[in-house]
Specification:
With 150 residues, the chain is mostly helical. It has a single domain, classed as Cytochrome Bc1 Complex, Chain D, domain 2, CATH 1.10.760. It is 36% helix and 0% strand. The structure holds heme C (HEC). The site of heme C (HEC) has 26 residues, from helix 3, helix 4 and helix 5.
């Protein structure tokens, strides 16, 4: 009896942060409108993640305004101008789980949300990019407004 009570209160305590995370990560249409961290990311860190061949490895498939990078992919559209083609929310969902938009896509799900849309970040499997890293990459992509390098 005591143990059951203990477990019940433990579960209750764990439920609080999930509820506190509110609507973060909620998918609406083809977008995730709200920041996963509650704030804006850092574009310079985002750029570093994109070109990092251990982290994002985006240039395996994409090219873009990264003049210092000799090897860039041609399996996917150039990232140049991505910020003018898509809204912030659309880009966020594409980064998190592009297969939700196109099940055939070869682009990895960098921060997949399992099942229920409201499950808090601590409950998810370890994603390729953390919520903060997704927001950093996003901050950089939003800045890619024209075809030319920023
Ligand atoms: C294995 C290949 C691959 C990797 C790695 C990859 N992508 Fe993609 N990505 C694609 C393909 C292919 C598409 C085209 C749309 C589709 O497949 O649904 C795409 C689409 C996109 C789009 C929307 C297309 C547009 O018009 O700009 C963005 C933005 C994007 N990727 C960003 C990224 C970023 C940022 C990374 C790294 C964190 C990344 N991708 C890693 C293959 C990849």
């Amino acid at each position: 009896m005591k143990l059951a009570w203990f477990l019940a209160s433990l579960l209750l305590a764990m439920a609080v942060p999930v509820m506190a995370s509110g609507q973060a990560g909620m998918v609406t249409g083809d977008a995730v409108a709200q920041s996963l961290t509650g704030s804006a990311g850092d574009a310079a860190r985002g750029r570093a993640i994109i070109v990092d061949r251990q982290k994002g490895f985006c240039l395996l498939c994409h090219s873009g305004p990264f003049n210092e990078e000799p090897l860039q992919g041609n399996l996917a559209p150039s990232l140049a101008g991505a910020g003018s083609r898509w809204t912030e929310g659309q880009l966020r969902l594409r980064l998190m789980d592009n297969k939700r938009i196109n099940p055939e896509s070869i682009m990895p799900a960098y921060h997949r949300i399992e099942g229920l849309n409201r499950v808090g970040p601590v409950w998810r499997d370890k994603p390729i990019l953390t919520a903060a890293e997704i927001e950093d990459v996003l901050a950089f992509l939003i800045g890619l407004q024209g075809e030319r390098a920023p």
